[in-house]
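Apologies for my clumsy wording, but can you show me some protein sequence, whichever is easiest, together with the matching structure tokens, please?
=====
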Amino acid sequence: MTTEPTGPKQRGRPFERGQSGNPSGRAKGSRNRVLVALDKIGADAAAEVLKATVTTAKGGDLGAASLILSRVWPARKGRPVVLDLPAMTCAADLPAVLGAVAQAVAGGELTPEEGQALAGVLECQRRAIETADLAERLAALEAKQEK
């Protein structure tokens, strides 16, 4: 038995531009059937699973305890840092301030990530100082040119 095509072979795009095979498309807010079923299974068993996890955590299972604590008490993303940094009133002060930050990282007062975040803040401050300085210089040049 042979199967031979009955019509001409489709070339290019099967639909006109802007028109799909299903113009109404998938209904907004509709969800995949598998995900709906998994959510239902999870909702039905959630209380039992939580109770079993708490029981095993109380029994000494550190993995279960870690799971519960990570949901109840999430890891902190940052901490307040108190450093005695030199004043930064002009862009030329930046190397001294960054040197103090590097010393704090080297001395263990700051983590490298905290030092990098602080360096980013200092870079923003340097740009703000330079922008204000340029605006002041431009205003002085414009006033000089008007005279």
Remarks:
- Residues 91-146 form one domain.
